[in-house]
Amino acid sequence: MTRSRSKPLRLQMMLAMMFGLMVCVFAAPAVAQHAASSKPSKSDLICHTTNPDECYPRVFKPTDEFQTIHEDQDLPKGLHVRMNIWTGQKEAKINVPDENDPSLEGLPVDRAMVVVDTEQHQDQPKIPKGAPEYEPVGKVKGPEHESVAFHEGLKMLKKGAGKTGQALDDAMEGLEDLSHDLYYGLKIAEDSDAVKALLCLMSSQQRPTTEGSIPRDQQAAAILAGTLQNNPTALKEVTKVWPTLVEVECPNTGEALRASVYSSVVPSKNGDGTAHQAAARVKSKVAVINGLIKDSAIRAEFLKEGGMSSLLSILVPHDEEWAGAQRKVGQLVLDNFLDEDMGAVLGQWPKTRKSADEECTADEAQGGEGCWDYHVARIAKATKASKSDWSRELVNRLAAVRKQQSTEEEHKEL
Question: Quick one: signal sequence residues (predicted)?
Answer without folding.
Answer: 1-32
